[in-house]
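Structural prep section.
Before we set up the soaks we want a predicted structure of the protein with 2-acetamido-2-deoxy-beta-D-glucopyranose in place, mainly to decide which crystallisation condition to try first. Input record follows.
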Amino acid sequence: MPGLLQSVVVKAYWTFAILGILWAVFIGSLINPTIQRHALYAHKIQSPFWHNVSNPEEFGFAKGQVQPFWLDTLDGERLFCWHVLPLDVYLENEYELTTADTVGEVVEGLKGTVGEKLWRRDGESRAVVNFHGNAGDMAQGYRPSTYRSISGIPKTHLLTCDYRGYGLSTLTNPPHIPTESGLITDAISLLSYIQHDLAHPSTRTVLLGQSLGTAVTAASALYFTDPTSTALPDQVTQLAVQASTGKNFKGFTAIVLVAPFRTLPDLLKTYSIAGLFPILKPLQSYPRLANYLTSKIVDRWPTALRLQSLISSATSSSTKAHPVHISILHARNDQDITFRESEALFAPLQSALLAADEGVSATEERRSIHGGERVSRGAFAYRRVEDARGERVVELEVVRYGGHNEVVGWSQVGLVVRRAFGRRSVGVGLDVE
Ligand SMILES: *[C@@H]1O[C@H](CO)[C@@H](O)[C@H](O)[C@H]1NC(C)=O
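Run finished without errors. Recording the tokens verbatim:
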């Protein structure tokens, strides 16, 4: 072998060997719960110092369009949140909003702000509650484009908070790191604040989650339907919420899940960080080692089980039954979480609904990349299962573009939200809570 070629081969060998050792050390270190949670939640990934979430104009919002506020959670954390006003409401009340004395301030709770008064004054106001994915804060990356897209929907107010430990939100409770029950508590606190303190009905509220936020969304939606569900962490079922839950709960307008996953252990089998660095994929031919590692995952986020529990408790007894509308949306070119996760999430929900009663029908449409059979809504693939009265619906839309992060701010998600509100406002009588 010529000397040059030999040295290239040797170098390549060592490069791979070192990468392999680094990967093994990284994976080994994840067995430690603290390191594991740091890797999962990535809440310490901080924004650059010129990024100021207290100043929403920096992220493309009009002066006075966003009211930053503090929210106290049910277990005593303080979350930093935004109330984003819809543009139609903004335009009608521009003077009042831009001259309010809370402009440029972070207020303690929304009560009494101009935005809150405008929201409550209109009996047709709607709310979208946004749950962001892991890493960074609510204004990171593409996230503000989601809020701008939703703010174009008439009468639709958007609320979003940084989970405990993210952005400016506190992290005072042990174990002083974000946890599954902690993030779910944050979401329930926000939803119960909207329902109870601001007296905004759940029937005019859409929950919108992306990535890790879909797991938070599914868990908190289940909580309101069945607050003692065994599919929820114990710390969560022990919460004392004043908003209506269980029997008194009338359902949310829709639950929109963008780029979700079945469970964290399932996800890690195929997940690559930023589409580049695999976690457990290299262990595909070592199932025992892979199973050992997945058994060490502390926060398992079983969204598939929670959505199934949600469907079954919302359909079970007639006294407790309420409408459920779940929309799952995933980009075909998502490099982080494959759209197969969404398909695998949808299938058992479809079976559960089909088994629940006789009037349920399922539809499926597909289109090849190059066109061909047309699919409603221009989706790449669209599946839907629904009961005879259209009260229990689960739909899956696989769109062609949008990747993992960008898609949530794109038109398809805005359309899903608009359709959800359009559908519910048809039966006006049902809307009253
Ligand atoms: C962030 O923005 C707020 C509101 O405009 C301002 O009061 C505050 O001083 C800013 N913080 C920094 C560090 O620039």
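Observations: Residues 49 and 379 are 40 Å apart (CA to CA).
Flagged for discussion at group meeting.
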